[in-house]
Structure formats: structure tokens, C-alpha cells
Amino acid sequence: MAAECDGTVAIIDDDAAVLDSLRFLLEVSGHRVATYRSAADFLAGENRDADCMIVDQHMPQMTGLELIARLKAEAMRRNIMLITGSLSQAISDRAAALGVTKVLEKPPGENELLDFVNSCVQRPGGAGDGAIA
User: What are phi and psi for residue 116, nearest 5 degrees?
Assistant: First the structure.
């Protein structure tokens, strides 16, 4: 069952500098942001109702794609951007199979990031055509 969205952008990345940088950019642009240092932190958190998510692929314990697969299994419907420092065809293919909206190499471009987030939070309910289900 899909949860109701609350206008928040969730960022999951084990790199504190990336979290701070993305949070700053999005907050300055007027978005509500919740950050998590790991997939486990996100799963344990109370705010799982984000309109969209920016997820790092390479994290300890659970990768971004493993987190996305788990959310899909739980029928959480969200638009997701996967970011990775080492983009490969295998990562792109798996992301596409999981319904990931966008895959970008780190660091993501400011315009691409803002276009993605703005398109997610402007959709009624937040989870539009590109959302995983």
C-alpha cells in the first residue's frame, strides 16, 4: 500500500559532505529535506513519506539498489534518483528494472537534480508516472 506523500525529499547517502551539500541546495530552493546516513537509518526512520528520494548506490550494509528493491517489495510508491560514483551498465539496467526514475553519476548536476525534485513534488500526491510501485 502506498503511503501518503508529505512534500519532503529524502536523501540517503553515507557521505556526510554529500548529504550536507544536497540538503543545502534543496533547502535554499524551498524544499523540505530529510537526510539519512544509511539505508537502515531510512528504514528505521519515522519520515518514510517523502515525495521523492535521492539514493546513493554504494553504501555499507545495504546498497541503494537493495533499498529500492525492498521499498518496491513493500509497495512504497516513490520517484527515485539513484546517484553513484561508479556508473555501470549493470547498475543502470538493474535500476531500470526496479523502476528508478533517474540514474546519475556523482556529483549530480544542480539543474538535473532540481528538475527531478521539482517534477516530483509538483505532481499530485508526489508519486507520479515515474514512481516505483
Answer: -60, -50
pLDDT of residue 112: 94
- How many C-beta neighbours within 10 Å does residue 126 have? 24
Assess contact for 50 and 121: CB atoms under 8 A: no
How many CB atoms are located within 10 Å of the residue 39 CB? Answer: 23
Q: Which domains are seen in the chain, by residue range?
A: 8-122 (3.40.50.2300)
Total-model pTM: 0.85
Tell me the C-alpha to C-alpha distance, in Å, between residue 44 and each of 6, 21, 39, 47, 56.
18, 23, 9, 9, 17
For residue 60, whether the previous peptide bond is cis, meaning omega lies within 30 degrees of 0, is no
